[in-house]
């Protein structure tokens, strides 16, 4: 064996540790290393940004919320009553409103009243003197109700004074018999029928009156 072969089978008696030293990298002056900012610096920047926003808000004028324009009573009345002043729907609306306003519940008189029907006449007798302004009559329609009315004020001597009259429509529902508003103790209502009509029917009658004080 030669010397090179013998050295290959020899076990080392000591473990040798080799330390390799590497040269430190050269610092490039053109490259800047950014160091992390400290927490105190971040807090100062955040606080200053908040203060700047608060100052900008104070300096800028407040934005007013858009408010709906106020509507006066006259404008509101025009908006309600005159939405379609040149159409047929406006005429129907006004006619319907007039009927609703006129057909409001009537105030009952503060005195006893009796009613008697005989033939084509209906008579109301009041306990006290009252001022009668109108009478509500409910007709059945279909040409079964009266077509005309006459109302009279009756005194103690049975003298008749006409205080109202007019045609009645051939409709189902309430109609208004307008009177002059005279003082009376007895009210006589006379009805007329259409040609060829032998009888008529009245579903209900209500007297709008006020006790004379």
UniProtKB/TrEMBL annotation:
Residues 1-21, 36-59, 67-80 have a biased composition (Polar residues). Residues 1-87 are annotated as: Disordered. This is Uncharacterized protein. The lineage of its organism: Eukaryota, Discoba, Heterolobosea, Tetramitia, Eutetramitia.
């Amino acid at each position: 064996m030669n010397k090179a072969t013998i050295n290959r089978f020899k076990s080392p008696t000591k473990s040798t540790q080799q330390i390799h030293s590497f040269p430190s990298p050269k610092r490039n002056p053109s490259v800047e290393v950014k160091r992390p900012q400290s927490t105190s610096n971040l807090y100062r920047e955040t606080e200053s940004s908040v203060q700047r926003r608060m100052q900008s808000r104070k300096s800028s004028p407040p934005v007013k919320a858009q408010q709906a324009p106020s509507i006066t009573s006259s404008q509101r009345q025009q908006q309600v009553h005159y939405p379609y002043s040149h159409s047929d729907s406006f005429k129907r609306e006004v006619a319907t409103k007039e009927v609703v306003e006129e057909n409001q519940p009537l105030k009952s008189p503060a005195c006893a009243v009796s009613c008697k029907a005989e033939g084509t006449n209906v008579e109301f007798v009041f306990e006290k003197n009252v001022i009668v302004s109108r009478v509500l009559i409910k007709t059945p329609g279909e040409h079964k109700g009266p077509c005309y009315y006459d109302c009279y004020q009756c005194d103690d001597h049975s003298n008749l004074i006409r205080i109202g009259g007019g045609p009645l429509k051939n409709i189902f529902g309430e109609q208004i018999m307008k009177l002059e508003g005279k003082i009376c103790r007895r009210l006589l209502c006379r009805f007329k029928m259409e040609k060829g009509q032998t009888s008529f029917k009245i579903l209900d009658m209500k007297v709008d009156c006020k006790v004379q004080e």
